[in-house]
Amino acid sequence: DNDSFVTGFLSKEGCTYTIEEYCSSGDHNDSIGYGDCGIDFYSIVITETCTPSGGGGAGSLGDSGEPVGNDTGSTNTGDTSGSQTNNGGSGGSSSNGGVTTPTTPCRGDDCPEELDIDDLIHKKNCEELQELLDIEPGSVPAPYKTLKEAIADLKNNLDGASEEGYEIRHNSNLEPLFVKVNSNNTGEGYCNYSKVPSVYGGLHLHLNNTHPDLDSDYEPMFSHKDIKDLLEFTEIYSNPSSLINSSLFVHLIVTYQGTYAIKIKDLTKLQHLNTIWAEKESRKDFKRFLDSQYRRKTDNFSNPNGTAEDYQKIFLKHINIKYDLGISLFKTTEYNGEPVGWEELILVNGDTANSDVVKKPCNE
């Protein structure tokens, strides 16, 4: 439902509008099911169709700046793309019953605020997260679980000695199923997901460090490997029936400070992590920097004692400033201890001593 992006913007008498979402490359739109689409799509097209009582409209401007249509009934197309800045004209005008009004095309910086690409990506990521959370407990067959059921299960095991988790898989009907990770693939400090084409996300716990048999301490925030897992989901997943875009993929953790999710804002930036991982020293630096920042919030390098905001700031600085990885951090909102919604956590003034974390609710 993209109408909310253009409320108050597309409302001219005698005109109708359709909104189509396009891939970041090619001309595959949702009318053909994103047939050959790559993982990302970052553009929507607003098509204005008017039946004027007066003269014909001037049409819209293509990439070359040339008009692409002028008829007694004009159709004007606007493309907003995250991969472009200003790649063409801002459009012409159409005459409706003697009243001249601007057409809807926009590109990059010309686009109205309602179509801001960051807001569009935020909305898509929020929608995917909320859809998972809205699946009612008991609605999937055993031994599978819903997200709420999986979160509740992991919360009950935070005081254990082994990380436990779930893989998020699509069944043949593209319905999400949470599948328990085999105990042979979990242990202290690790939870290894299956590398099968139906897996597009994962959920695991970070221990609360109370079990006497633990050899190390664990922070209530994503690790460097957790970030790499998110990228690997995009590389492993393959389902020809699925309408793939980067908002599909997700990695979640359940901690004693809350339940978090990381989502993709810019896949190209996240893919740079493969370059970092391929070189031994850069990989070591990537891991060491995050670990060292976490260790600052401990008692003598053990017993993590930072606040939730402390760890949020450390993680956001790592993924947004030290390494620009194109991912977002979300946290569940709860009612009576049960997750009911999501909010994005955004770092402001991150490179100053006055850095802060701002919450951007998904339901706004």
Give the low-confidence spans: 1-14, 24-48, 52-106
Structural shape: globular
What's the helix count?
6
Query: Mind telling me the C-alpha Rg?
Result: 23 Å
Helix content: 10-25%
**Order of helix and strand elements from N to C terminus:** EEEEEHHEEEEEHEEHHEEHEEE
Give the integer mean of the pLDDT values: 76
Task: Tell me about the largest β-sheet.
Answer: 8 strands, mixed
**Strand content bin:** 25-35%
Question: What is the distance, rounded to the nearest whole angstrom, between the alpha carbons of the first and last residues?
Answer: 14 Å
Q: Write out the strand line-up for the largest beta sheet, numbering strands in chain order.
A: 7-6-10-11-12-15-16-17
- Work out the number of β strands: 17
Q: Which structural class do the helices and strands define?
A: alpha+beta
Task: Describe the protein's architecture and organization.
By secondary structure, the protein is of the alpha+beta class. It contains 6 helices and 17 strands. A hairpin with a 7-residue loop joins strand 16 and strand 17. Helix 5 packs antiparallel against helix 6. The chain is globular, with a radius of gyration of 23 Å.
Quick summary:
23% of the residues lie in helices and 27% in strands. The chain is α+β, with helices and mostly antiparallel strands. The strands form 5 sheets. It has an 8-stranded mixed beta sheet with strand order 7-6-10-11-12-15-16-17, with helices on both faces. Strands 1-2-3 form a 3-stranded antiparallel beta sheet, with no helix packed on it.
